[in-house]
Amino acid sequence: MRKWSILVLSLLVVWGLTACGSGSNNASNDAAGNANTGNQSDAGGAGAGPKGNITFAFWGAQTEADAIKQVIDNFQSHNPDIKVESQWIQQDYLTKLQTMIAGGTTPDVILVSGGDLPGFASAFQELQIDPSVFSSQSLVDAMSIDGKTYAAPFIIKPKVMAINKDLFAKNNIELPSKTEPMTTEQFDEIAKKITSGEGSSKIYGSEPLWIGNWIYAFGGQYYSDDLSKSTLDSPEAIQAGEYIVSTKQAGTVPSDNEKQGQDMMNWFLSGRIGMYTDFGPWSIPQMADTEGFDWDLVPFPGNGGSKEVDGLALSKDSKNPDAAKAFITYLTQSDEAQKIIGGNKSAYGVPVLASAMDAFEQIFPDKNLNAFVYAADNQHIQEAQKRTNEINNELKAIDDQTPIGIGKQDVKVVFPQVAEKINKILQQ
Amino acid sequence: MFASKKRSTTVKRILAYLILIAGSVAFLYPFIWMIAASLRSLEEIAKSGMNVWPQNWRWDNYSKALSSFPFGRYLVNSIITTVLPIIGTVFSCSLVGYAFARMKVKGSGLLFVLVLSTMLLPGEVTMIPQFILFKKLGMLDSLYPLIVPTFFASPFYIFLFRQFYSRLPVGLEEAAIIDGSGYFKIWRTIFLPLSKPALMAVGVMVFMGSWNNFMGPLIYVNSDKWKTLTLGLAGFQGTYSTATNLLMAAAVVITLPCIVLFFTAQKAFMEGLTFSGSKES
Q1: Touching check for B100 and chain A: CB below 8 Å?
Q2: Which residues form the signal peptide (chain A) (predicted)?
Q3: pLDDT at position A91
Q4: Chain centre to alpha carbon of residue A327
């Protein structure tokens, strides 16, 4: 009996190890195949385009990954000589990317957001990109550091405001314009009108406002245009901070206790919030199933919010840069690819080509998705610095020390202090 | 006198049960909530709050969740990267633990301290060097990095086995030595069969660790064909939004083996609590 079980165990071990082994065999075959194709293209030169294998790393939920895989399939059908190996990284994207870069296995093509770009740019090749191809010049700016472009714009994720039309009707409030942002004063007035009730059935004007969106609504920004200096001490930034504090005091947003551990999007879904201001494209599919009330999308008040631009970067160590470049060009500049990505039901984001915008707006034709297109054009780009971690540590003071978060100190006092500390980091 | 004593034990019993029921409700509630959420629409999850009875039973969440990623393939990979590490860990750690407990040689104490001290290194520190190591071995994008290390023992389990073996009576192996058995034979024929409780305990711990391992597959595996169920679960969570109902449906299915294991291994665990090495006690 014992001998029998030992035999089964050892068989299991051997089977398991051989099963896992085929991966590395494939890998070495692939590597060999790669080298061969490399030789062929060197020697022959008969084939017109680039050939060989490239790897492509990207993040996203299942639905987003499905959209990207569809584009990859399309690219391969046009370029049968190039094989794209997709590396879909479900979570902790940056950790995995850092490990791969440190381990010398950087993928050839990497999806990167404008906010993370400065931290990773040293691992990327500089790209020559014509900004006029894209719907807005700012898209290439979002992918550039000190005038050098390190990634090609691929998708835009701006913020708009979702409104509960039923709550507007109930309070006899005129529906806001679909094309023009309301002013911050108008927003405040509407929020106060919508707020009603008490306790667990209280309805709020909006979710707790996020300084990262509202600083722009008041005409401020985090840094000077050349990113050399923090502008958190500007009157506009301070005004934005003070406004957020005032909404908490007026009770038009859920209090700190109420919002604890809760997803405010769920509150909007359950009809307890009139205006949801932090609404990104990723929230659209969630809303699509809502039957409880009528809703729509309008531009962010005061043209606030900022747009995240995600781009495709080319690794410095890429063994097959020509194929990688062809892939990047297809994904970012071909009408077909942008329509697939932009028109995906998961609302992956706003396309970067003007010609593909229709595909995006058609995902939900009865909702005003044009608000996203408007924002993609007009919103401020994400402001990115290289020393994100240190700067974020200083920015925590906003939440810790002022009533925007849990603190008691005056916004007027704290913001300039934070700006000074960030400036010290930037000067180092 | 007798009656009042009986009554007081009944009261005590009822009290004990009440406390136990309250405790188990506290632990069970999140689990029941998970099952309830797996049968709801997103909107209903948002509205329902503490309530655990779904209004519209959405059984199709399960088919949607399990068909949105290659469940079968991920399951096979999860099983491989769980079963082999259990075998590897139990084999290597009991062997090393036995050596530390029973082979008294010069410097073994120091060696043991060295082994234990490696536990002080956090995983984040060793992640990149380990990644480079497996790259040099040509084992990236395969299941090897998740399996091979377990065949080379890990300090915590070595410690566990060492403590277990140290408590077994000396008489056990003396008889075997007189019979002419070597160390390996003593380990295999006497110590291993006696250490069933420790083997079960370590086996279950390795099972939980491997079945739920997320960072390992995330770092080492790139292609779909080697991904595990934990990565499949992560796919329901976007950067900003989560398909909570589908996530919960998949989570229920993936948690099932853990629950089954708990109920089947429970008895062995109980035995493990009262184990003894010699026949007399």
Answers
A1: no
A2: 1-19
A3: 87
A4: 21
Q: Please tell me the distance in Å from A64's CA to the nearest CA on chain B.
A: 8
Contact in structure between A190 and A173 (CB atoms under 8 Å)? yes
Other C-beta atoms lying within 10 Å of the C-beta of residue B57: 11
Residues of chain B in contact with residue A105, where contact means CB-CB under 8 angstroms, are 135, 140
pLDDT digits (tens, 9 = 90+) for A280-336: 998 887 787 777 899 999 999 999 999 999 999 999 999 999 999 999 999 999 999
SS3 A161: strand
A184-221 residue pLDDT tens:
999 999 999 999 998 878 999 999 999 999 999 999 99
Contacts (Cβ under 8 Å, ≥6 apart) of A255: A248
A290 CB near a chain B CB, below 8 Å? yes
SS3 (DSSP) at A143: coil
Judged by a CB distance cut-off of 8 A, whether residue A12 touches chain B is yes
What are the beta bridge partners of residue A162? Answer: A276, A297
Model confidence, pTM: 0.81
Q: Closest Cα partner for B207 from B107, B84, B24?
A: B84
Question: Do the beta carbons of residue A100 and residue A112 sit within 8 Å?
Answer: no
Predicted pLDDT of residue B278: 39
Provide the pLDDT for residue A212: 93
Best residue in B130, B218, B226 for a mutation probing chain A (most A CBs within 10 Å): B218
Strand duo A204-206 + A273-279: pairing: parallel
Question: What's the pLDDT score for residue A78?
Answer: 94
